[in-house]
Design goal:
It is built from five helices and four strands. By secondary structure, it is an alpha+beta fold. A two-stranded antiparallel ribbon has the order 1-2. Strands 3-4 form a two-stranded antiparallel sheet. The longest helix is centred in the C-terminal third of the chain and has 13 residues.
Length: 145
């Protein structure tokens, strides 16, 4: 394998596709190029094992150096403290300002999903803190607190 030898690809159609795409520059130079690249990089040459079904190429890697892990440096991080406003409170505040909002409009105005707003308004209605007055189209919300 290290001297001149005939090159016979296992699958000529696939090899031809790689050749035409520029992935292979010439037939029969792969092993020569691997050896040259290892030499240029200062690495040991790969081991070659020829069998009836093909060639095995074994690359030798240098053992990784064991280093002691560094102790992580802890740095204090100041973060602003935010008080969370719960969804029902946001809903009541928004509906006091605009009682004509639809559930979709309400969800958009407070930055929550429609399903979250539906659950929260249903709970507020059950707790008698909120009531919808009038027809579904054209009605409005009444905050009961």
């Amino acid at each position: 394998m290290l001297s001149k030898h005939p090159s016979a690809p296992f699958n000529p159609d696939i090899a031809n596709a790689f050749f035409r795409s520029g992935q292979i520059e010439a037939w029969g130079r792969g092993i020569e190029r691997m050896l040259q690249t290892c030499l240029e990089a200062g690495r040991p040459s790969p081991g070659l094992q020829v069998e009836s079904i093909g060639v095995w190429v074994k690359f030798l890697f240098a053992h990784a150096q064991v280093t002691t892990p560094r102790k992580p440096v802890e740095m204090p991080v100041e973060m602003p403290v935010e008080t969370r406003v719960k969804t029902p409170e946001k809903i009541l505040a928004a509906l006091m300002a605009r009682p004509d909002l639809t559930l979709a409009g309400l969800a958009s105005s407070i930055g929550k999903s429609l399903s979250a707003v539906e659950r929260a308004t249903a709970r507020l209605v059950r707790e008698e803190k909120l009531r919808f007055v009038g027809p579904k189209k054209g009605g409005h919300w009444e905050v009961l607190e």
